[in-house]
Amino acid sequence: MAWYILRRLLQMIPVFLGATLLIYAMVFLIPGDPIKALAGEKQLTPAAEAVLRARYHLDQPFIVQYLHYLKGIVTLDFGTSFSGRPVRDELERAFPITIKLAFLAVLIEGFFGIVFGLIAGLRKGKLFDSTMLIASLVIIALPVFVVGYLAQFLLGVKWGIAPVTVTGKASIGELIVPAFVLGSLSFAYVLRLTRNSVAENKSADFVRTATAKGLGRRRVVSVHILRNSMIPVVTFLGADFGSLMAGAIVTEGIFNIPGVGGTMYQAIIRGEPPTVVSFVTVLVVLFLLTNLLIDLLYAALDPRIRYA
């Protein structure tokens, strides 16, 4: 197991380098001069402009800038934004909030999607199955911002059972409704994925063999059907965690959540490439580590998989 983890970590290095190089190039090689954008309508003196270019290594070749950027990542020194604020402070403030939001969304979509998908798969072709399929199609057809504004209006404004916006503390209670909104689309996919996988495994040979041996229905469903149906679902949930963190900008904007999405949006508006690049880089690292964790969970779900 330890050698497998080490090998996977080594495999992540070229992926990380390639992703960060692409991100860095896309952000810093776009048309325009960030120093002049920082000055706005004011005219910088040549001396002040030279100081700013030297501070952000903009007076050096692209590859040298990228190497300085990698050095900062290794030493956890993400530099400062063009507005003078340390990027690390922004990371420490925004990421815990978005991780908490994305984790709640994955729990909600995973729990309800698996439960409803399991019941629908076991009752394939019946009323509950048809109802869940129609409901999931409706959820997929609705954009996230529509679901968000509806939830905000109904639960927050009209009925008053949930806060309209999230405070700076971003407690669990305040994030429940945004997590439902953020995970609504993925919930529909988890439901349909679980339903199809359960319906397929329900008629598999190993299930018929377990039933013929006299095993109870609860054990057949929980151990043989559900466990073998979870591999594609776990794969989707693992990849979805990174997608939820990157795609939380709409939900965070609706509920005024000071997380990664809102911070990146403001950084793009203000023209702060160091902040954007640092945030996306951390998202890449979290995505790679999440996929490693999912690979390790395969061995727990499928006894045929062994990491030697």
UniProtKB/TrEMBL annotation:
CDD domains: TM_PBP2. InterPro entries: BPD_transp_1_N (IPR045621), MetI-like (IPR000515), MetI-like_sf (IPR035906). PROSITE patterns: ABC_TM1. It is a multi-pass membrane protein. The chain crosses the membrane at residues 12-30, 97-120, 132-155, 175-193, 233-255, 275-301. Belongs to the binding-protein-dependent transport system permease family. This is ABC transporter permease.
